[in-house]
Design brief:
three-stranded parallel beta sheet
């Protein structure tokens, strides 16, 4: 089962598929009709007019081409001309998530509102308990003075009829580090000094106004144009994302043109060994606690937003780093492409000398559809290297700490604090640990709820994917055609 469908997700997938298909059919510079194909003349306008809807699709196409729409004027060139720019570039632009301001609905700030369910009860706990006296009753119904309200939510919690609701601001509410802000027109902007590239805002925006720079075209170009080996580094979170077996998927990637496929769980095994040794050493030296380091969004959040936490973050590198390092040691000229669920990996790759490109599962899904590659029908091929069970369990919440604990054994008592999803509340927990300490000595931090299987680049439901990861991890080294990933 794929992630729950909505129009934004479907439109993004269709757009990526058309862009990938255009490149593979040697007609990327002839993509002017994509907005009209996705928004035909007889379509019901979503944002007031078909013309405006197409303008927004054009800007989303720019993101699919790896061009940041808020850095250019989309009207200055045709889509074909922008595609030529994409085909000519030699180096990737700095990764960033951005807002298509023409698509931003300028949603109101979060506020509590009274619904029709208000019964005007005698108890009136909403009014009695409001610390700012912001609630009054008019014609027997509660009313909230927005000038006085501080959105504490006490009224919502105390209402016996659940008549008071919080109207959210999806993108800002989802951001764990308050990196989004409004301009004078109410349009959203992203403060890139604060942004940790977690992608939660992109996933939460119901207008498709938040986009990232994709690297799909760059990877396809390397596969098609270079004589060098292009190796897919497959994140273990892939389990459950595609139908068929892991061997079918390897066959599909090789049919697409990848020279080899290596599971990133091999690098996770190295991370486990190094992080376990580091944890034991730090505890023996008397440090209060240590946090994991393999999530790049959390790593940046700690160093930028809670600098007092930074000394407690493990210095061990990520599974992606060690996997790419192994590949470059064997073949320094090979092209290393991480395939995974995470947008923040693009940010990490910018400082990783060995990882060349990052694509997400949704990009790969679009490429498979554009090439009409059916994973289940592909000949089974073996992974270049295989992992032990510890590395494979990394992408689910508790997996990293569990892997580390399996190697620590009884050397040091490991007491776990599990942060299952980075949000405003969990950021407060981390800050409290940094300033006051806590009862646990190992903190595992997963930015995405559920772990990497809940990442914004996934196409499967997190719980389904987590079950598949657990099954795959239990298989250990017994990789056979029965190792289901779908």
């Amino acid at each position: 089962m794929l992630v729950p469908k909505n129009n934004v997700n479907s439109m993004r997938h269709n757009l990526l598929t058309k862009i990938a298909g255009s490149y593979l059919n040697n007609r990327l510079t002839d993509i002017e009709n994509i907005p009209a194909e996705l928004i035909p003349d007889d379509a019901t306008p979503i944002r007031g007019s078909v013309a405006r809807d197409r303008e927004i699709i054009k800007e989303q196409c720019l993101a699919a081409l790896g061009i940041c729409p808020d850095e250019i004027n989309a009207a200055e060139k045709t889509l074909g001309e922008f595609a030529q720019d994409a085909l000519r570039r030699e180096n990737l632009c700095i990764n960033k998530i951005s807002v298509i301001h023409n698509a931003c609905a300028a949603c109101k700030k979060p506020q509590h509102v009274v619904s029709d369910q208000c019964r005007g009860c005698v108890a009136r706990p909403c009014m009695v308990n409001c610390p700012k006296k912001a609630i009054s009753f008019v014609d027997g119904k509660a009313q909230i003075d927005t000038n006085l309200c501080i959105n504490c939510g006490i009224c919502k919690e105390s209402c016996p009829y659940s008549a008071i609701i919080k109207a959210p601001l999806p993108c800002e509410d989802a951001c764990p580090v308050n990196a989004l802000y409004k301009d004078e027109e109410g349009k959203e902007h992203i403060d890139h000094e604060k942004c940790v590239s977690c992608g939660q805002c992109l996933r939460s925006c119901p207008f498709g106004a938040i986009v990232e720079r994709y690297q799909m075209i760059d990877v396809l170009r390397k596969i098609k144009e270079t004589d060098k080996r292009v190796v897919a580094m497959l994140a273990p979170a892939v389990m459950g994302q595609f139908s068929g077996t892991i061997n079918n998927l390897v066959g599909a990637l090789k049919k697409l043109g990848f020279s080899d496929v290596m599971e990133v769980a091999v690098g996770a095994d190295i991370t486990t060994q190094k992080e376990a040794a580091e944890f034991v050493e730090r505890m023996e030296e008397g440090q209060k606690f240590m946090t994991t380091s393999c999530c790049p969004a959390y790593f940046r959040a700690a160093h930028v937003h809670i600098p007092e936490l930074a000394p407690y973050v493990s210095t061990t590198k990520t599974p992606m780093y060690y996997t790419a390092e192994l590949l470059k040691q064997e073949d320094p000229d090979c092209i290393c492409v991480f395939v995974g669920p995470c947008l923040a990996k693009r940010m990490e790759a910018e400082s990783d000398p060995n990882t060349d490109y990052v694509i997400t599962f949704d990009e790969l899904h679009a490429i498979f559809e554009a090439t009409q590659i059916n994973v289940t029908e592909c000949p089974e091929e073996n992974l270049d290297k295989i992992s032990h069970a510890q590395g494979r369990i990394f992408p689910i919440s508790g997996g990293v700490a569990g892997a580390v604990a399996s190697l620590v054994g009884d050397k040091v008592e490991l007491k776990l604090e599990k942060i299952d999803g980075l949000n405003k509340d969990s950021m407060k927990i981390l800050k409290r640990y940094a300033t006051k300490g806590g009862e646990n000595n190992m903190i595992e931090v997963m930015t995405c709820a559920g772990g990497c299987v809940g990442g914004p680049g996934c196409i499967a439901l997190a719980k389904k994917a987590a079950r598949a990861v657990e099954t795959y991890a239990q298989a250990g080294e017994q990789l056979t055609s029965d190792s289901k990933i779908g």
